Description:
The protein has 2 domains: 6-149 and 290-330, Clavaminate synthase-like (Double-stranded beta-helix, 4-Layer Sandwich), CATH 3.60.130; 150-286, Double-stranded beta-helix (4-Layer Sandwich), CATH 3.60.130.10. Helices cover 25% and strands 30% of the residues. The protein has helices at 35-49, 70-78, 148-154, 157-166, 182-185, 191-200, 237-240, 247-256, 276-289; strands at 6-15, 18-24, 51-55, 96-98, 101-103, 113-116, 124-135, 139-140, 145-147, 168-173, 204-207, 213-219, 222-224, 231-233, 264-267, 300-304, 308-312, 315-316, 320-330. The strands form 5 sheets. The protein has an 8-stranded mixed beta sheet, covered by helices on one side. It has a 4-stranded antiparallel beta sheet with strand order 11-12-10-15.
Amino acid sequence: MAERSFTIEDFPQARGGLPLLVRARDPRLDLLDAFAELEPLVRDWLPRCAGILFRGFALGSAGSSGAPSVERFRAFAAAFGHPLLSYEFGSTPRTNVTSGVYTSTEYPADQHIPLHNEQAYTRDWPMRIWFCCVQAAAVGGETPIADSRAIYRKIPADIRERFERRGLMYVRNYGNGLDVPWQKVFNTEDRAAVEAYCRDHRILCDWKEDGELRTRQICQATARHPVTGEAVWFNQAHLFHVSNLPEEARSALLDILDEEDLPRNVHHADGGPIDPADLAAIRAVLAEETVLFPWETGDVMMLDNMLAAHARTPFSGPRKVVVAMAEPHSAD
Ligand SMILES: [Fe+2]
């Protein structure tokens, strides 16, 4: 049997096999050219390891040292056979780089984005997400990851039971200079189109007296992977809750706004507040399960978005990590 053109290695920082490291034997080997060889490996490994890091491949560049081509990255992600998704009902600003490929969030560089599964604050999410490091930051800017099955198992049973029983309701207020305008989140200027989207996606929407929009949506706290059947922690309560804001920003906002007008917040679906102690315990589990490693320019990481969560650390200097998503899935 011919030797494979890549190696499968244990990643030194991995936790429970996440991420699997797949490294090109020859830095001139293009990731897209290796697709036929890589595809069966992804099919076999991704449901187990939750995330794969492709390192040392060329991507439309002369070698692994050159800047990767975003267009080649798009083609690699699309080659898995599902159309790439647009970023609907997004939570942070992004720019469409090329059809189906976005900048990773334009959230301020000095702030930490906690671990999350993409779009777990809603009822429709992509099953697969790819990241490509076009330019690694000089300092920081990692994309930490974690296994959502391990998180589920480690969350104290009483908290898990409470979250599953009481559910979550995410509340968002758009615009007003405080958060992304609704026109950008819904990609339209047409209020009727927003209402139709919300109806289709079981999102409650209210136009407020000042013309701005509030949405509310009841969502899952945990979920079951449709293929592996495994239970995963699958929500963004720790991220949407007002306690995620730095103390100063939180009190400044609460000075001028009622709690229901906060740009984003979350409570239990029955209307009751989430116990801050529960959120603290959840954040502690997330911290314990975090896998952190530096990006190398040209890296491509592929995650099963239900099995693995991702985050972003603060950074300085230029950084460019682009993202593609595919295979929409909806809550039951
Ligand atoms: Fe994300």
